[in-house]
Amino acid sequence: MRDRLRLAVPNKGRLMESTLALLHDAGLVFETTERSLVSRVQNHPIDILFVRTGDVIEFVNDGVAEAGITGGDILADSGIELHVLRELGFGRCRLVAAVPSDSPFESFADLRGARIATSHARIARSFFAAQEIPVDVITLSGAVEVAPRLGLADAIVDLVSTGSTLAGNGLRAIGDILTSEAVLLTSEPARLAHPDELDGIVTMLGSVIAARGRKYLMMNAPADRLRELEDLLPGLESPSIIPLAHAGMIAIHSVVGADEVWGLLPRLKAAGASGILVLPIEKILP
Ligand code: AMP
């Protein structure tokens, strides 16, 4: 058994930067150079293997790495059974069926007998088979979105995040087949052999993901406005109330959703709060 856990992560592509940011934010200290395949984490017994996004699953399934980070869609498409230890909150996308904007097709059922171009043939086939809609799946490795314009297909099945690429190619989505985000995964043998180490990684990454959507709010207020202010503070955490040196004044500390801050600040001020500070949170361990 290896004394250092191996974590396979994307070496380029859409998921690479967010993966590295998550690992760094979790406190792992390691270097990334363009050409290195392995990077030794200096403050934790982990080696990071940089591989292609699509190969992460093989590395974990073959036992070359004990854990990996890749897209949930890639796992679904692989047909390989691995354990998803945690969804990671980035790389969010949908696998959609799309047709030319001027096409009469409106729903999956309308695709009966259609030619569908995709690089996700396995998922597309099993999805339409489960829906009992016979289709002809054409496997392409790239440039799927131009297939209808070239007369190669009537529809496509492809990943989208904002939908702007679809629109730019004169296509419109008619339904979602799958939603996906980046995931941390492991194999059954690795899970049995390294439960504590894997738990540690899940906890470290989870604490960063939990903190990303939250802010720490600090403010002073007259003690007699406490009830009013408490009502405004969402119930994510019970606020801490601290008496101040000036009689009748308190400090209130609370954790709130990052997207709530914008709407909350003027209302807190109107309810008597002053000296309001909004601070980033590095990690949250519930
Ligand atoms: P890569 O081929 O290395 O650029 O990574 C592709 C992976 O990024 C996909 O399998 C998805 O998990 C994820 N992803 C997120 N948004 C998109 C998108 N709009 N198009 C394609 N892949 C996406």
Task: Please describe the topology of this protein.
Elements: E1 5-10, H1 16-25, E2 38-40, E3 46-51, H2 56-61, E4 67-71, H3 72-78, E5 83-87, E6 93-100, E7 115-118, H4 121-130, E8 136-139, E9 155-160, H5 164-168, E10 171-180, E11 182-186, H6 188-193, H7 195-212, E12 214-222, H8 226-232, E13 240-243, E14 249-257, H9 261-270, E15 274-280
Parallel strand pairs: 1-3, 1-4, 7-8, 7-9
Antiparallel strand pairs: 2-3, 4-11, 5-11, 6-9, 6-10, 12-14, 12-15, 13-14
Classified in CATH, the superfamily of the largest domain is Periplasmic binding protein-like II
Q: What fold name goes in the CATH topology slot of the largest domain?
A: D-Maltodextrin-Binding Protein, domain 2
Note the overall shape.
flat
In this structure, how is the largest beta sheet organized? 6 strands, mixed
Any idea what the CATH architecture of the largest domain is?
3-Layer(aba) Sandwich
β-strand percent reads 25-35%
Roughly what is the average pLDDT, rounded to an integer? 94
Number of domains: 3
CATH class of the largest domain: Alpha Beta
Rounded Rg: 24 Å
Helix content: 25-40%
Count the strands?
15
Side by side, the strands of the main sheet go 2-3-1-4-11-5
